User: Fold this.
Amino acid sequence: MDSEKFKVFLKNQGKSAKSIERIVNFSADFDEFMRKKGKSIDEAAEADLYEFTGRTKREIMKKKLNLWGLIFYYEFTENEKMKNLSRKLRGSVSKKSSFPLKEFVDVDKNTVGKLEAEGIKDADKLLKTAFDKKSVEILSEKTGITEEQIVKLVKLADLSRLNGVKGIRAVLYYNSGFDTLEKIGESTPEEMIERTKIYIEKTGFKGIPPWGKEARETIKMAKRLKKIIDL
Assistant:
């Protein structure tokens, strides 16, 4: 890796001294990885980049920064294939995996199985398939699942967009009367805590009420999230 020529290239692109240093250092991580394999960064193949980002134990942000640097490096070396792969991988490492429908507690497994047979295995896919009355009706006719069951799963999937609200929390909020983001956004932390506590005490639900800060943050996020279902 010719760091000096790379720095000149970056300077000619108008990068600041600080940005140049960061880009070079992040690219050098991959160069070091390749040298341990007995090759240089310029000899790297697509498989090497996949291995670097997928198998090494790196935090997501560090991966993104490494790939950010490599986009510039491979532009510098005019390696279009590796530059495009670096950009593609940088986008993919920051994406959160969607929550599997089968992980929601107290959800009919037969219903989930029918959805999986249609290729609908996670919250994201369900929300793109059933988001209003008409789309729910179509999915119901196609799968044989009642519209009521589909609506419940869609609402749980929508709740799972909230940080920290997944298999247990989503079901707890839904069953406590907070079945939409709007209802959560309009509530108070005290109300959320009290209503979930009452539900747990009455039913023996295996979960705990949100604590004060958690409830406040959940309400804030519910207000910020874009509305994507109309049910």
Q: What stands out?
A: The mean pLDDT is 88. The chain has two domains: 3-93, 101-224. Residues 150 and 206 are 23 Å apart (CA to CA). The two ends are 56 Å apart (CA to CA).
